Amino acid sequence: MAVARSTSEPALGRRITARNAAEARMLRVLDHQWERKASWLHAQQQRLEVAGTGDAATPKAGVIHKDLARTRMCRSDSRLAMSRPLSSITTRNVTRNPQVESVSPNFFGQRPQSATVRSPSDGSPAKLEERIQKAVSKIAQGLHVALLGASASEMHKRELEGEPLRKILREPSEEDACRIFRHFLRLKEQEADRAAAKLQMRRQRLLEWGKEPDRDDPRIPDPLSRLAWTSFFRWVEQESTLGVNPESRRAYAGLFRGARLWFRKCASMAQRNDGLSLGLLLSLAYPTASSRVVAELLVWIGAHELEQICHETPRLIDDDERKQLERIFHTAYAKGRAFVTVDDIAGGDFRDKHTQLHTLVDAALAQQVFGDGPIDLLKFLEFMCEYGCQGHAGVAEVTLPDGLRLTHCRRPEFRFQGWLATFPSEAELARRRMIDGLELELKSWRSGKGY
Asked: Is the pLDDT at 105 greater than 80, yes or no?
């Protein structure tokens, strides 16, 4: 949106219209610097008139000639760099357009404001609500372009045709939610790298000063903590500067302006202080979605992450294998009883020669495998079946042929049940902590307290 300038003579001798707020601030700074020089010129002219010098045709040292002072500024001629008409200094604050905010020439000690056009209805609630709605639309479109690869030109075309926002944006899907989640994690990694580099620099300075560096924090960082707003705005600004095409850069610029307005006018104090959460990023990408829809997106993300670390379901033994194990249990060990003991598996207390030849384990090994307590048929099937198989449908743990133990896991919050490693690696353990963070985020959005 073009920003109007003051109706007084501009510093460069022609009317200049700023294309954005940054250019408007730069033009205001140039005019501010010019006013300081022009005040000095005006003072020199007044000294010349007070002194009553009649020799106007002969310019003196330190005095600007009247004809030269009437000449407009020319950037290519350094001798005429201070040739702005002095009459514009006195009329600088008397603007013909009362809607244009101007700065006094005496306002030298502070940073000049941007030359924005302020209409009388800018402060009204209706006008502010309209600006916020437009900002929310720009945020959603910019996030869809940056994170989901949507076409900026197509979205802009449909917006000009008057289509509603819910039809312009994509429908929520598991794939798009996971892509937003992955990008959120990348932003978190970049933020952590910058923090680590800053900490390393601090340690080097402390060592140079002969001081003891700070100790490392033993606490494990939360992998799904909130993203700082400075990191988010830095990423948006980089995308708006380094976009691949003009349409994308325009969408990123709209995202930056809309996010800044939303941060100033709509964000709560907790949101400003705590940072940007994953649920809030999803709600900004889908502004028409309710808290329940955001919670459902978090369910999709959590289920997808669990499927990434889930192992294949072990095979359940067939009927022939089960009948064979049941016959061995009843004829060789139980002999009419409902359960057996470890000594029965080892051959009994009084083993004859025939029993010793047909028994492959001793009491110590049987106790190590089965543990203490009675052994019923289901427990016998669970431990005596083939490796990597389930002895019955209610098995909770299975040992694979390579020695890896799997545990049947249920996560009702994500509608997931599957087999996970009993002793996970460090990478899988970090991923499980992230899934736990997703569960906390999901509960907060389901309760309506997410932000």
From this structure: no
